[in-house]
Design brief:
By secondary structure, this protein is α/β, with parallel strands linked by helices. The protein has helices at residues 18-21, 35-47, 62-72, 99-108, 120-138, 145-149, 163-177; strands spanning 6-13, 55-58, 80-82, 155-161, 181-182, 197-210, 217-218, 221-223, 229-231, 244-259. The chain is 27% helix and 22% strand. Helix 2 (35-47) packs parallel to helix 3 (62-72) and helix 5 packs across helix 7 (163-177). The active site is at 14 (tele-phosphohistidine intermediate), 88 (proton donor/acceptor).
């Protein structure tokens, strides 16, 4: 029995910015890490220093990229890529406003959150495009006989991104859409905290879809193409069409969600602990 390859994904949210601290909506604004955020990035880098990563991916926005660089310095030989698809959702004119100012603006204009910036569909499409790409690149397709008989080694990649992006990819797509198992469901009540660590394991699964069976009977026998009949005792062995299609899908586990154990020594509250932080990524 072959062992299916696994893709291990460690996801880290960027460190704190002044906008996080003051409940300012950021979106595509290129805000920088503040002093606490730089300390957080250094601590998560030390936490992950002994892990073996095959590739590091980061959003191109400074707050994520600088966090990724603080981790990457412990992995000097690991490929490092920056990808705009890992950005936070663009919220248009709401960017730079406090959550309270944004709520007032939305109320005064008689609009909805969804009316500002990019559509949720476009945001989702960007993230899933990236996800599909890394699956194709880092997780062997077990449909082929060669990859089944000679599976590649398990791969481990790091993603450094934003709270809204993590929520969209992990909570909405992996858990809700794909049905990934969650080790601790209580932990996903809140969105990802600054420099929190989320660990995921992804596998390809293959299911068999059995097609229809077609049996043409006449009297006590089965009719053949030349009109002759065959005893019914042989019916189970002829003219039975059984099509089997092997459809690859994904399954996986969320083994850890939004862990910030590495921040204990700071002794400070981290963004993401309250309901208002759901809006500020």
């Amino acid at each position: 029995m072959s062992v299916r390859p696994q893709l291990h994904i460690t996801v880290v949210r960027h460190g704190e910015t002044n906008s996080n601290l003051n409940h300012i909506l950021q979106g595509h604004l290129d805000t920088k890490l503040n002093k606490v955020g730089r300390e957080q990035a250094d601590l998560v880098g030390k936490r992950l220093r002994k892990m073996k990563f095959d590739h590091i991916y980061s959003s191109d926005l400074s707050r994520a990229k600088k966090t990724a660089e603080a981790i990457a310095k412990h992995h000097p030989n690991t490929p490092f890529s920056v990808d705009m698809r890992l950005r936070e959702k663009d919220i248009g004119r709401l960017s730079g406003l406090s959550i309270y100012e944004a709520l007032d603006l939305i109320k005064n204009e008689g609009s909805q959150w969804e009316d500002y910036g990019e559509s949720d569909e476009d945001f989702t499409d960007n993230i899933l495009s990236f996800f599909d790409e890394i699956i194709d690149k880092h997780l062997p397709d077990t449909q082929g006989p060669e990859s089944i008989e000679h599976p590649k080694k398990n791969t481990h990649i790091l993603l450094v991104t934003h709270g809204g992006t993590i929520n969209k990819l992990v909570r909405e797509h992996m858990i809700h859409d794909l049905g990934f198992l969650v080790n601790d469901y209580l932990s996903i009540r809140h969105k990802a905290k600054n420099t929190s660590v989320t660990k995921i394991v992804v596998r390809r699964k293959i299911t068999d879809d059995v097609g229809s069976r077609s049996v043409s009977r006449r009297g006590s026998g089965v009719s053949s193409s030349d009109g002759a009949t065959t005893p019914s005792s042989e019916a189970s062995t002829i003219e039975i069409v059984r099509g089997v299609q092997r459809k690859p899908r994904l399954e996986g586990d969320i083994n850890m969600w939004s862990c910030v154990a590495h921040l204990a020594k700071l002794g400070k509250r981290t963004r993401g602990d309250s309901s208002i932080d759901d809006y500020v990524h």
